[in-house]
Amino acid sequence: MPLQPEDLRWLACPVCRQPLALDADALRCTGCGRRYPLVDGIPVLLADRAS
Ligand SMILES: [Zn+2]
């Protein structure tokens, strides 16, 4: 099942704890602007994977 926008309320940036916004292929932090990749629809919220 693809990630739904309402799922994002459970998620926060591990770096700055701000909410995340869903991009086409990544989650983008609304605070610091880091982008976390989606791997098979699963967000990878690891600071060292962020771009
Ligand atoms: Zn952040």
Largest sheet: 4 strands, antiparallel
Which structural class fits the helix and strand makeup? mainly beta
N-to-C series of helices and strands = EEEE
Q: How does the overall form come out from the CA principal axes? A: globular
Mean pLDDT: 89
Radius of gyration: 10 Å
Low-confidence stretches: none
Number of strands: 4
Cα distance spanning the termini: 25 Å
Strand order of the largest sheet: 1-2-3-4
Give the distinct bound molecules.
zinc ion
Give your account of this protein's structure:
By secondary structure, the protein is an all-beta fold. The protein has a domain at 5-39. It has strands at 20-22, 26-29, 35-39, 42-43. It has a four-stranded antiparallel sheet with strand order 1-2-3-4, with no helix packed on it. The model has no long low-confidence stretch (mean pLDDT 89). Bound molecules: zinc ion (ZN).
Defining key terms:
mainly beta; 51 residues
Any chance you could write out the topology, listing elements then pairs?
Elements: E1 20-22, E2 26-29, E3 35-39, E4 42-43
Antiparallel strand pairs: 1-2, 2-3, 3-4
This protein binds zinc ion.
Residues 13, 15-16, 18, 29, 31-32, 34 line the site of zinc ion.
Q: Can you give me a brief rundown of this structure?
A:
This protein is mainly β and 51 residues long.
